[in-house]
Amino acid sequence: xxxASGLPPDTPVWRHAATPCxxxxxxxVLLRVSGVTKYFGQRAGxxxxxxxxxxxxxxxxxxxxGSGKTTLLNCISGRSQPDAxxxxxxxxxxxxxxxxxxxxxxxxxxxxxxxxxxHQNPRDGLRINVSAGANVGERLMAIGxxxxxxxxxxxxxxxxxxxxxxxxxxxxxxxxxxGMQQRLQIARNLVTHPRLIFMDEPTASxxxxxxxxxxxxxxxxxxxxxxxxxxxxxxxxxARLLAHHLMIMKDGRVVESGLTDQVLDDPQHPYTQLLVSSxxxx
Length: 282
Fold this sequence. Notes:
This protein is of the alpha/beta class. Helix content is about 35%, strand content about 25%. Strands 6-7-8-3-9-10 form a six-stranded mixed sheet, sandwiched between helices. The chain has a four-stranded antiparallel sheet with strand order 2-1-4-5, covered by helices on one side. The protein is globular, with a radius of gyration of 19 Å. The termini are far apart.
């Protein structure tokens, strides 16, 4: 990988498993989740969840607190091993692999290269005691980058790309606002050009005006990079703006899924209808 390079030259075709094939050749499956189940004692976190994700596919997982959406995200992203089911990822060199059959070092390498994880609280995804530039640059060093000039150039470019003042490359994250810290966390995750990024309520802790700006940024980045993403949110407006597909969870189970606009404009399950009506009445 050229760490100072720009956008990847190839632009994968986006398609979701539930969508009819519109082109002659279907895009390869990037992520396949089958029967994923996780319990915490007697309490169900998520139960028998299936999904497929393709390159450029943006999926939102929505539901109230306690619905199981974050538990599912943690199982999918390798952060919490499920009690049952499989999580398979289409690796660059070995094809489809069950991530929980990979060794711990290989799974960590996957998390540093092909994956990114954006936390709700940016401080959970940043190293607060090092500079903004070091936060972004160390991701490149983790995959073998050693040329200081190239690393700094790539970091500078990514700070500009996420609308941060690159002149603050040597400033500490604690001197940044919450919205700026979140954009720095995004730059830290995307600098290695991952193919899949996980986001856990990425705008929930921000003021409304800052949320809008960050959502516009995320929408542009996922589109321009053909980046696959799974976004956990309780906000259906976030799902409508960012996601091609929407999955609704209740009590650990998926109760409805489909095209985002279709689910929100014509909800079929009573729980989804309740969620949509509560937004309209708010």
